[in-house]
Amino acid sequence: MSLDTRPQTGTTTQTAVDMSVDLAGVTLPSPMMTASGCAANGKELARFFDLRELGAFVTKSVMAQPRSGRGTPRMAETPSGMLNSIGLQGPGIRAFVDQDLAWLKARGARALVSIAGNTSGEFADVAATLRASDAFDAVVGVEVNISCPNVANRGLVFACDPLASAKVVALVREQLPRDVPVFAKLTPDVTDIVSVAQACVKAGADGLTMINTLLGMVIDTDTLRPQVAGVTGGLSGPAVRPVAVRAIWQTRAAMLEGRLPTVPVIGVGGVRTGRDALELVAAGASAVQVGTATFNDPSAPVRVGRELQELLQQKGFHRFTDAVGVAHERTARG
Amino acid sequence: MSAGVVQVTGELIASRRAGSYHHLTFVAPGLAEHARPGQFVALAVGGPTSANLLRRCFSIHKVSPSGTYGGTVDVVVSPVGPGTDWLASLRAHDEVDIVGPLGRAFPLPTEPVPCVLVGGGYGSAPLFWLAEALRERGCHVEMVLGAATEQKLFGVVEARRSADAITVTTDDGSAGTRGWVSDVLPEVVRRSGAAVVYACGPMGMLKSVTDVATAEGAVAQVAVEESMACGVGVCMTCVLPVTGNDGATRMVRSCVEGPVFRGDRVRWDAFEDGMCRVPADAVGAPRAGGH
Q1: Which residues in chain B touch residue A237, judged by CB atoms under 8 angstroms apart?
Q2: If you classify domain B115-276 with CATH, what class do you get?
Q3: Cβ-defined contact of A298 to B7 (cutoff 8 Å)
Q4: Interface confidence (ipTM) of the complex
Q5: Which of A204, A221, A334, B175 has the fewest CB atoms within 10 Å, counting from its CB?
């Protein structure tokens, strides 16, 4: 990979860029994370890198009960991306905390636990079970997945409606101690993402994760029927990165303009390289998740972090946090 | 990394056509030493800026832990899409990112029992290596290779070396017996007194093999072909319904819990017309309205 360089002034020895970040009161050594649903619950990727190298390991969205997910085929490859129609397969929150979270804790990983529910009450129940678990001290935050398109109503998700979003966030927030931040994961499939963000923050979200997949569809032109068994699915991968950059940008701009309280944004969507990550950071992301790229390269979440650090160093940054939202400062307003 | 799985840059050292297929040999340091028959590798395609992000998974045809070039791994590719076309077009010294060995290998019998190995198309790729492992244990090994046409058979010559007997079928009769492997399999299983039938190929064939094996009192061990995005257990796309030791059916990942399953544990009743539904009695199955 070729990197932009600019003349370095001063000393010839450089100290490494400080990659640590404060995310709604929780200090993480790195802004890099896995993305929910793209990393399972840790054991698989631990064969390729030490999970402690990540700022946080983001687990697959877990619901109250075990869930089989949908039939197959569950995916279709698309230009620079993929469509998935998994349907939130998972073990249920009890088995998750006893087995997966306990395992993550034993490995010293910091867990950002993604939770989901069919109703706002189910989200609250899942959060309560999580809090009551023995491994809860491994949890550095909870990501509230109100935006998975692979649910029975096909994309008509909580995060399409500010009121429904606010209700889920408020109920989850009540169940968790104040020092455990709650992040609302948003969909870009809305008319105005800022109004959904406003509702979530007002209801108690300590931060935002954006973006989830976009609702999409692929038709198999040999059989002339939908290629995935679930008919529609979630589109992800580098193809959607500009949508993520736009969503992060709009939200950050609203914060800078005082239309939205300033909260950290976790950027996710189509990140494959350090340069891609920097794009989300410059738009306003304080942390970066690597999702679909992990399918291509199981080491991607840590590789991207190394590339991002090198790129920041070459650009003369001493601290990662100085690059967060920097593109807003460099934009001519007219 | 642990558990014997490595991610390496593999250098292509040989590519040759084999009927409708391409047989590729890569130098893949650290991979061959741990691999066993039935495991697979996941290859990235198209280079670092490829628009085809998903890994392509292939049964390991064979490995040589200490060849002239260091450890090598062989796979057989059927060029049918952009990823497999790219692999087939590679030339010597081109590089491919390889992850492996992945998945569970074929279980080997503890006693030297007769075995029948069934391959559909290039699904036969891992069977020659398996045959050698079985014969080292004193097993009598017969092979049945079937395909649509002679061009789509793989490894007939190799099978004559690897097995004690071989039967070939083609749909059009261009080689061997006209028909399907399931037409000749009952006789082969009966004659050889097989205790285990190993198979790799299309799902429909694996179901037939399971039916025949069960009817003849043999155990079927089948390596399934489910499409995978990652190959390493994180994408959840390659699932199929399998009944566990507790009698419960779950949607399990073929990349980590398979690709080899006992045939009588796979819920073949859920497969229809190129799709697989979640059986109503599966753990966490959708209620009305679906997932």
Answers
A1: 53
A2: alpha beta
A3: yes
A4: 0.95
A5: A334
